[in-house]
């Protein structure tokens, strides 16, 4: 983990290329899902978001695509839910990922 100091909660999350230039996302509670209460951390693109939620009694970081059904946004099958251990592992390797991305560009 780096010693950079404060978190960057107010910044947009990185885009995956199909983002449509949305304004910085706001945190808000989402209570539409069946067995979880989640906090949307950011919207990556129009139909993709990062959410922290409780799923089957465990806190997960969920990166998922959403679709519209009957006027409601519903979570799709495309996505990944990271356990806290998996999230910490990914977070601890962000600098290495950034370095690899910079080498390719």
Task: Tell me what you see in this structure.
- The chain is α+β, with helices and mostly antiparallel strands.
- The chain has a domain at 38-104: Transcriptional Coactivator Pc4, Chain A (Transcriptional Co-activator pc4, Chain A), CATH 2.30.31.10.
- It has two helices and five strands.
- It has helices spanning 84-92, 94-104; strands at 28-30, 38-45, 48-55, 58-69, 72-82.
- A five-stranded antiparallel sheet has the order 1-2-3-4-5.
- The longest helix is centred in the last third of the chain and has 11 residues, at 94-104.
- It starts with 27 loop residues before the first strand and ends with a helix.
- 10% of the residues are buried.
Could you give a short description of this structure?
Residues 42-93 form the Transcriptional coactivator p15 (PC4) C-terminal domain. This protein has helices at residues 84-92, 94-104, and strands at residues 28-30, 38-45, 48-55, 58-69, 72-82.
Number of helices: 2
The span between the termini is 25 Å
Give the rounded overall mean pLDDT. Answer: 76
The CATH topology of the domain at 38-104 corresponds to: Transcriptional Co-activator pc4, Chain A
Instruction: Identify the CATH architecture of the domain at 38-104.
Output: Roll
Number of strands: 5
**How is the largest sheet built, in terms of strand order?**
1-2-3-4-5
Rg from Cα: 15 Å
CATH superfamily (homologous) name of the domain at 38-104: Transcriptional Coactivator Pc4, Chain A
Reported for the largest beta sheet, the result is: 5 strands, antiparallel
Structure classification: alpha+beta
How would you describe the oligomerization state of the chains in this entry? single chain
| Helix-residue proportion | 10-25%
Approximately how much beta-strand content do the residues carry?
35-45%
Order of helices and strands: EEEEEHH
Q: Can you identify the CATH class of the domain at 38-104?
A: Mainly Beta
Global outline: flat
User: Any low-confidence stretches, pLDDT <50, length ≥5?
Assistant: 1-36
């Amino acid at each position: 983990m780096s010693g950079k100091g404060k978190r960057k909660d107010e910044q947009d999350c990185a885009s995956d290329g199909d983002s449509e230039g949305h304004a910085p996302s706001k945190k808000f509670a989402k209570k539409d899902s069946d067995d979880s209460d989640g906090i949307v951390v950011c919207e990556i693109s129009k139909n993709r978001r990062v959410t922290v939620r409780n799923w089957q009694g465990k806190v997960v970081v969920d990166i998922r695509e959403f679709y519209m059904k009957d006027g409601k946004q519903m979570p799709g099958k495309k996505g990944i839910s990271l356990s806290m251990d998996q999230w910490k592992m990914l977070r601890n390797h962000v600098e290495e990922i950034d370095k690899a991305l910079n080498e390719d560009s």
